[in-house]
Every structure is written in structure tokens, then in C-alpha cells.
Amino acid sequence: xxxxxxxxxxxxxxxxxxxxxxxxxxxxxxxxxxxxxxxxxxxxxxxxxxxxxxxxxxxxxxxxxxxxxxxxxxxxxxxxxxxxxxxxxxxxxxxxxxxxxxxxxxxxxxxxxxxxxxxxxxxxxxxxxxxxxxxxxxxxxxxxxxxxxxxxxxxxxxxxxxxxxxxxxxxxxxxxxxxxxxxxxxxxxxxxxxxxxxxxxxxxxxxxxxxxxxxxxxxxxxxxxxxxxxxxxxxxxxxxxxxxxxxxxxxxxxxxxxxxxxxxxxxxxxxxxxxxxxxxxxxxxxxxxxxxxxxxxxxxxxxxxxxxxxxxxxxxxxxxxx
Length: 322
Description:
By secondary structure, this protein is mainly alpha-helical. It has one domain. It has 13 helices and 2 strands, in the order H-H-H-H-H-H-H-H-H-H-H-H-H-E-E. A two-stranded antiparallel ribbon has the order 1-2.
């Protein structure tokens, strides 16, 4: 059976949510023993090389035109270099749960804000309602546990790092969409991963304590497995899907993965590890899923039909893309 374009996009969205719903724990495991710059820079560099090598084997374009190279480098620095190093250093001082709350709540809002500011989207009541509902669901689900205890200065700085990283990623995502008029999503993913990863890795080697020693890859199997997971499904597959959805749906709509990914992470914890879920967890997950469904629902636009000879014009309702 051949899936329609809309159905394929939804399948890709589900895959994206499943993969990125499990990456915070993998990052936490990796940076416990590996300098964050090396851990992220090496992964994104290899991911970019893999994607571009695949395109080379398929005889597909792998280079950008000189006209857009500068903007491409800026997008790579925002989405990979700055986002990764700032967030990973922040993650050293706060829990994975708190980082997930900040990222999940801020990402869709920031994507919508930057999209409107850059003239790609407009504010729509339904979209704003979805964002508000999703943020409420996130805090019902994670808020009490994530913010339990007293935040010291390092934890506050860590949370600030995650916030800045999210803003960098969101701005880069919105700036990437116009570039995909001339770059395929896989090409965009490969080039941004490679450029951002190389810059981050070289900066890490130059200034990060322990970076050169870490390049011997004596990390221990938990960190190495986490790196592989973040590399293959996390960077190679998921970033390609994300860029395609940004191109086809717009950044804010694609960014609603942040409302679904935490729900998947919680459900996996319940099913695989026997974790407990109370009524507030269930309420939070329902709110987040409703928010994602509200944001992803196709728009309806009125289209005036042609007037037949001697007839009356009609109005047909067409469902929007995706």
C-alpha cells in the first residue's frame, strides 16, 4: 500500500518524536565521562560525513552554491555548535528531567516566535492555544519533580544554558527553511551537521580540558553506546526528518515534536522499567498530546470553484498541507 504524502509526513513525525524522546538520557550518560565538546563535535561531524557520503554514492549534490554558503554556516553554528556545547555544559549542572522541561516548553514557542519575526508564519489562535496547552501539560507532567529541591547558582546557570541553546536551535531552524528552496533536506542535514560538528570539535580541542585525551575514545561502553545512539537514529536519521518537516510544514508545526517526545519517554519508562505514573502524569500527557494534535491538524481554506455556464459559484473546502 502506498502512503499519501500527508501520511508519510505523519509517520516521519512519529519517528522523530520517538527518537528525540530518548536522547536527553543518552546525552547525560555521555557527558558524565566525556568532555561535552568532544562528545557532541565528533558525533555531528561523523553524522554529516555519513549523510554526504550517501548522497555522493547516489550521485546527488553535496555542495551549496556560494550565494548561500554564509547563511548555511550561520545556521550550522546556531543549530549544532552553539546549541550543543551550551546545552551539554548546562546539562552537567541540572537533571535530565529539568532540561527536558525547559527544552520541551521553550522550543515550540521559540520556533513560532522566530517564524513570525522572520515573516514565515503568522499568529493563529489555534496555534497559540496549542502552544499554551502543551506548556501546561509539560509542567503538569514534569514540573513538580523537575523543580523539587533548591536550585543553587550552578543549577540556575545550567538551566540558563539549556534556554540559550534552545533559542539558538530555534533561530537556526527558522533560518534553514528558505535555504531548502535550493538544498534537499538530507543535503541540508549533512552540511549543517558537518560544518557545525567540525567547528565544535576544533574549538573543543583548542580550549576544552581533556579534549585531546578523549579523542583516544577510551570512554567506556555506556558512553560509547550513548554516542552511537545519538549518532545514528539521533543525528543521521532524525535531523534529516526534522529538516524535511521544517521545509514542508514550517518550523513551528514541526517543533511540536517537543510536546510528544516527553510523553513517549514517560511511556517507555513505564513499559520497560516499571516506573510509576500517577493521575497528574496522565493529565499532563493527555494535554501535551491534545496540543500536538491541535497544532498538527490540517488547516481548512475556502476555495471558490469555477462558475459553470448559467450556474452559481460554489465554495469548496480544501484541507491544508500535511
